[in-house]
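Memo to structure team: turn this sequence into structure tokens by end of day. - J.P.
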Amino acid sequence: MNAVAAPLPLSDLPLVFDQVAVRVGDTAILRDVSLRFTSGAPTVLIGPNGSGKTTLLRAAMGLIPPAAGVIRWGEQSGAGPRCSALVFQRPVMLRRSVADNVSYALMVASVPRAQRKARTQQLLDLVGLGSLAERPAPRLSGGERQRLALARALARDPAVLFLDEPTASLDPAATLAIEELVRAISARGVKIVMTTHDLGEASRLAGDVVLLHRGEVVETGPVGQLLGTPRTEVARRFITGQLLL
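Reply from structure team:
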């Protein structure tokens, strides 16, 4: 099955943020962010609401231009992503069938018409929605909608997949299904960068973790190190459930 692409060539990774700032009017959303995303296990962004996690994903996708600094994909300074996709926290479903949602995504990704039916079924099987192909997408549950959103994103054959709070508001069973998908997609060589408020989820999925607060990178490192022995007071307070102002 080739429903999920091979990783980006080494020349296209890492994804580098070099002193990136993002502003909306006079408000700084990201401040001097320097990060390096490489191939391998998922990178999970954590931090309180308003810390800049979603803005970072949007900036990586080229949806928000930096006010300062540079975002580089491999050696392509200032170039936009060529092989990536973003799944929003509340994905909008087309008012069509589940299969039609994926087929439309394949069309947008310039997949030839003759290949779309088979690819649609591959993708739906991959996310566990093969038996729901003809169901109207608006009738799906929250967890099923997230799985459909993942199938649509994978239609682009991304080598880097950004996920914004993919399990927010889902029950434990739906959360487990999404987490299993994240592991399966990562195991196929797709680099995943995702946000979450759930430290348990971060510990289950992440290879490395980035803690953001007030638009700044507070701490970053392997998940076991950052969650187990944080180096900064802000990280210690966040991990122990204290409010960050």
